[in-house]
Amino acid sequence: MKSEYDVLIIGGGPGGALAAKTAAKNGLSVGLIEKRPAIGAPVRCAEGIGEDLIGEFFDEIDPKWISAKIEGAKLIAPDGSYFYLSPEMAGNEVGFVLDRKFFDRDLIWQAVHAGAEIFVKARAVDAIVEGGVVCGAKVEYNGRVQEVRAKITIAADGVESKFTRWCGIDTTVPLGELETCAQYLMTDINIEPNITVFYVGRDIAPEGYLWIFPKGERTANVGLGISGTQSGDGHRAKDYLDKYVNEFFPEGKIIEQIAGGVSVCEPLECTVSDGLIIIGDAARISDPMTGGGIYNAMYTGRLAAEVASKCIESGDLSKGALMEYDSMWRDSKMGRALERNYQMKEIFVKLSDKQLNAILTSVKNLKMADFSTLSLVKEIVKLNPKLIRDLTGLK
Ligand code: FAD
To answer: Which of 19, 205, 217, 377 could form a disulfide with 305 if both were Cys (CB 3.0 to 4.6 A apart)?
Structure first.
């Protein structure tokens, strides 16, 4: 590992990988450090992504990245009634369930091929901050701690991000806005292999939801997230998941278990500082409604590297110059969706089971040629004006 790079990236998830690839392609010297011994494992993710979203980054989708092609979704209400989002409503293809073990690794390979240097089992243990300017990281690697300096450091260290805090930025997520998640990779279960299933309701997953994301004919990621404030002894995310699995998949085999956190708060107030850009989950740029963040991490990773390249070329590494990154992602389609979905999440977590049943029933009766989240929300508001007014205090 060199002692100096143009760009140092902390974290080898999809955000860090896209940042590394883009910066290296732009001719910068890039070092990326990942604390785990392997890229892409363990996978703390249900691995779902929209086809149009992933298509933004690649000319071709490698078939080995894809565990399942998803063509429809089922949303199940607390009373057991459901709304089916058919392939026709969804424009025939909703998306993919990835195999992130391959996907994340390939992203890193692409970064390496572009010229980035990658180091695994290399952990940032502190930030180097001089006169308020972030100048790199102290990195534990091969049994010793060394200083690695950079013109720009990109914090891509995920939801648990410590690096940003070491730089003096408050990243606290309120307990009520941190979903605690448990997930099993299960096999030998009866599922519809091209349909994702979502359950909502206080008994199933309070202030969250349960998901079944197929990964083959009889294999799926089965998981759920609940609000941190709803978690306690005997009723943690894993307890809710076990209850569901015992009832619905008693014969199923669990071949992997994971636990993880997802922030459903608003993004950090500011995602840059002098010499520093914060991306993906570290910046809390995951979708507050769904918890999805693969696309957002890749989008902000690529954008961060583009802005970093420009600033390094001009020699201005100040917060003011880097603000271009902050403004650009907020003004993007993704940034606007985050804002809207945060409002939706605020409504969703306050819904009682009775209200969820009522909404699902009204949605079931929709006949929409052009289905989208926004049109769905508009229809819900139209069908339940009083309910939405009561919940949001809107006039
Ligand atoms: P990460 O992928 O978390 O990568 C951060 C990396 O930084 C990690 O590899 C970590 O080891 C490394 N790191 C941390 N600290 C240091 C350090 N000090 N030094 C060096 N390296 C460090 N999103 C979706 O889009 N679809 C889904 O279906 C979905 N399901 C999910 C299910 C669960 C249970 C969870 C927990 C999350 C899910 N997500 C999903 C969210 C998604 O996984 C994240 O949004 C995405 O991985 C964010 O990418 P990232 O690059 O920002 O961070």
So the answer is: 19
Whether the model clears a pTM of 0.90, i.e. scores above it, the answer is: yes
Band the pLDDT of 393: cuts 50, 70, 90. Answer: low
Ligand 1 touching residue 267 (CB < 6 A): no
The torsion defined by the Cα of 137, 140, 141 and 147, in degrees rounded to 10, comes to 40
Q: What is the pLDDT of residue 355?
A: 87
Residue pair 51/94 in contact by the 8 Å Cβ criterion: yes
What's the CATH fold of domain 71-96+174-263?
Answer: D-Amino Acid Oxidase; Chain A, domain 2 (3.30.9)
Give the pair of three-digit tokens for residue 372: 């989208």
Q: Is the CB of 292 under 6 A from ligand 1?
A: yes
Question: Domain 4-44+101-172+267-331 adopts which CATH fold?
Answer: FAD/NAD(P)-binding domain (3.50.50)
Report pLDDT for 360: 83
Q: Which of 294, 302, 303 to probe ligand 1 with, by most ligand atoms within 8 A of CB?
A: 294
Task: State in Å: Cα 51 to ligand 1 middle.
Answer: 19
Distance 217 CA to ligand 1 centre (A): 26
- Residue 8, pLDDT above cutoff 60: yes
- From 154, 157, 209, 231, give the residue whose CB has the most ligand 1 atoms within 8 Å, as the site to mutate: 157
Indicate if the pLDDT at residue 227 is higher than 70. yes
User: Is 1's pLDDT higher than 60?
Assistant: yes
Of 15, 7, 12, 13, whose CA–CA distance to 285 is shortest? 15
Ligand 1 neighbourhood includes 124 CB (under 6 angstroms): yes
284: left (phi over 0), alpha (psi -120 to 50) or beta: left
Q: What is the pLDDT of residues 50-103, one digit of tens each?
A: 988 999 999 999 999 999 999 889 999 999 998 888 777 765 557 999 999 999
Query: Which sequence spans correspond to the domains of the chain?
Result: 4-44+101-172+267-331, 71-96+174-263, 342-392
Q: Per-residue pLDDT for 187 more than 90?
A: yes
